[in-house]
Automatic annotation (TrEMBL):
Coiled-coil ranges per UniProt: none
Protein name according to UniProt: ABC transporter domain-containing protein
UniProt key word Repressor: no
Source organism (scientific name): Streptomyces brasiliensis
Pfam families documented for this protein: ABC_tran
Keywords of the record: ATP-binding, Cell membrane, Membrane, Nucleotide-binding, Transport
Length: 266
């Protein structure tokens, strides 16, 4: 069953520049699609358009059907009902999702309480469970902390716990590991991978890095200058890229991998 069906999505600025151009993609229930392309290729604007979160002044045309709701042109009320329940997002910078003045536990409690009607001790226990699920040690301490009191990797886990709190059918992860230290990137990818598998969730995973996309998704769509240039199984894209642009992405992922191999051999 198709969960997300994007057809002819076009995003324009107020002065008429086209930043996403006639893009179409689908994500089935339980499927994981990678969206890959260099910086500026339109990946983030695509994810924002899917959630109805485009910056002021930008307009979307075309169709974005998310679990039966048409997102393009939807009212804010309708969008609020969809976000969190049908799709939730983890951004590159966890601080965009977290309120700096609110303790971490309360930030997770709010969406949990909305979904489950839990209160008091039962809600506290559910928050603890949400923090444990994203493999945070000492969940009581983390729940009492403010965002600046925990590490960047821990903040990204908290953002993931918040995104998962309402059990969304689609997780959109927009460069979720790019801002993290290399040492914690792989752990975060493995965590996302195992949590979405356990929950049979669909994923739209955005990255400029083909090696990262290959770790979490089975199929990928390559974007350049706001357009889709190639789409296929990740395995095929890596082995037999058709487009010059995809070949360049594969070559740079290989260069990076061999540089890392050399580093670890030293
Ligand atoms: N608020 C904005 N106003 C004007 N132009 C924008 C805005 N946000 C993005 N753009 C432009 O739209 C294009 C696509 O940006 P987008 O952020 O979607 O790319 P991206 O592939 O996600 O890259 P990155 O990973 O660097 O964010 C770029 O040329 C960018 O400069």
């Amino acid at each position: 069953m198709t969960l997300l069906d994007v057809r002819g999505l076009t995003v324009r600025t107020a002065d008429g520049r086209t930043l996403v151009d006639d893009l179409s993609l689908t994500v089935d229930s339980g499927e994981r699609l990678g969206l890959i392309g260099e910086s500026g290729s339109g990946k983030s604007l695509t994810t924002l358009a899917i959630l109805g979160l485009l910056p002021d002044g930008m307009t979307a045309t075309g169709s974005v059907d998310l679990a039966g709701t048409q997102i393009v042109g939807a009212t804010e009320k309708r969008l609020a009902a969809v976000r969190g329940r049908d799709a939730a997002v983890v951004f590159q910078e966890p601080l965009t999702a977290l309120d700096p003045l609110m303790r971490v536990g309360r930030q997770i409690a709010e969406p949990l309480a909305r979904r489950t009607c839990l209160k008091g001790a039962a809600l506290r226990e559910a928050v603890r469970g949400a923090l444990t699920q994203v493999r945070l040690p000492e969940p009581e301490r983390i729940a009492r902390a403010f965002p600046h009191e925990i590490s960047g990797g821990q903040r990204q886990r908290v953002a993931l716990a918040m995104a998962l709190a309402c059990a969304p059918r689609l997780l959109i992860a927009d460069e979720p590991t790019t801002a993290l230290d290399v040492s914690v990137q792989a752990e975060m990818l493995d965590l996302i991978d195992s949590l979405v598998r356990e929950r049979k969730m669909s994923v739209l995973f955005v990255s400029h890095d083909l090696a990262v996309v290959a770790r979490v998704t089975d199929r990928a769509l390559v974007m350049k200058d706001g357009r889709a240039v190639e789409e296929g199984a990740v395995h095929d894209l890596v082995r037999l890229p058709r487009e010059e642009y995809t070949k360049a992405l594969v070559a740079s992922a290989r260069r990076l991998e061999s540089a890392l191999d050399l580093r670890s051999a030293r």
